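Hi Y.,

Following your request, here is the sequence exactly as I used it, all 435 residues.
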Amino acid sequence: MLFRQALSRRHVLQAILGIIGLHLWYILSNFRQFVPLDDDFRPPWEAVESGAHSNSTVQDHYLPPTVEESDSFAGSFEAANEELAHTSIIAHAPGWTIFRNLYMANGTLYILSTDTTFPEIRMMTSTGLPAINVPGNMAAREPTSQDMDFITPEEAESRWGRSAVASVEGNTLLFNDPPQFLGHYYHFVAELFFGAWAFWTGAWASPSTDPKTAYHLSHPSPPTIQRAMFPHSDGYDWQDPAGFNSYFLRAAFPSMDLEFMDSWEDRVVSTEDNHRITYVSRQSGSRRKLVDSDHLDLVEALEDLVARKGDRWELVMLEAESLTHSGQIKAAERTTILLGVHGNGLTHLVFMKPTRVSAVVEIFYPGGFAHDYEWTARALGMDHYSVWNDRYFTHPDEPSVDYPEGFQGNSIPVTGATVARLIEQHVEMKRTLTS
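Below is the corresponding structure, written out as tokens. Let me know if you'd prefer a different format.
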């Protein structure tokens, strides 16, 4: 870029001072503050070079692998039957923390460990609420257990199991900042990305003691960062009026994926560990309906079950006639147990997330059976139960295919207590098997 106006001596002096200041800032940024855990604590580069080992129970949290080994160090476990990987810290300074194996469920970040000698949670995360100059705002922005919490391996396996935990491969920048400052060029580039990149590179580089190289502006290439997440941004409020934020980001990180509030909410939904029973009711349809009194008893039994089990259980009544197509799909994708009389509404099972407890409970007129949804559910890795009034069957003991009189009728009987007990026993059995 060419400038027509000649630079004055004052401008030249300001530029030189700015370059010197930037140079010094970069050098100091390599000396990150790591959290000392005991008297034997050493910075990671000293421990690696000397081979020393601290007595701290989490000393290995501060020993980063080599760059070659760590290009994607955020994975969890390698196989479904292996123990869930514990959370550790690569580097930390207040406001900046590099985690290995950080978990998220229901929007809460979890540190999976038997050890709680981590930095204060308030130094590792925040609520993401905007800073407003009103009484009580500072207290409201203090993080709680809803933002970040500890979970033991036993609690994690009981709550999630092993096979239901999915790994987001690669390395992620998670910016928990409110949107009020994201649209400022200085805050976005100089504070967020410049600060994050300096901390990231400093965590993987050993400060040199050689006078000839100690002040060089060169460092080993750090591991690749695959994505940046902005859970509190709508995807537009991070762009400054002059357009420098997006220009900088695409020039400096051309391959980095960006995720915003909607993507974060999708991830939250996909990790919800509630047991959501979706009852596809056909009572407002024209055929293949339950006896009215049995329908009411079934709803009552399911409501009693959910109330007795607590906050992590939910009942959703799905009447296709009252929902849009997208509304039905959204309900299905959040379903744990899909329940209903044999019919097209059960096709929504293909949009369910297969988990260790996912199942389809299909009600038939006693003596009737068809493989349609049983085959589909099992092909997707879910359990399937066939209900005949107060009896139920599952593979490999499913009934023979038959369409007796009454199969298509509007007087299909069912015992609500039997269905509720079946669902409760199924969930408890799955939880026990994966504990």
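The CA atoms of residues 80 and 199 lie 33 Å apart.

Thanks again,
Q.
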